[in-house]
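Below is how a single chain appears once it has passed through the pipeline. First comes the sequence as given, then the structure the pipeline wrote out for it. We keep one example in the README because the format questions we get most often are answered faster by looking than by reading.
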Amino acid sequence: MFCKNCGSEIDDRAEICPKCGVRVNPQSASPATNDAPNAGFAVLGFFFPLIGLILYLVWKSDYPLKAKSCGKGALIGVIVGVVISILYVIIAIVIIGAAAGAAGMY
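Resulting structure:
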């Protein structure tokens, strides 16, 4: 890559030219202009955690704030799903135990 200001050859990953000190790639320093936290994507990630995870992985470098919303929604959705599953198993064990005790099988 070459500096747009002085024309010297610079590293492709450089953000500032070492010869003239001018910022070479200004768009890499700032996130995308349409990047903002989005509650809609968080809700989507909550109800469909796999989609939230995929969107997080796809957007994490280009849209970090949207990606964070998707990731949070997916993580909360997975946690809530696990907690509900554990509660369901506990309730089922209690109901089965109560039914067995009432039937004299205990």
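The longest helix spans residues 64-102.

See the next section for the split statistics.
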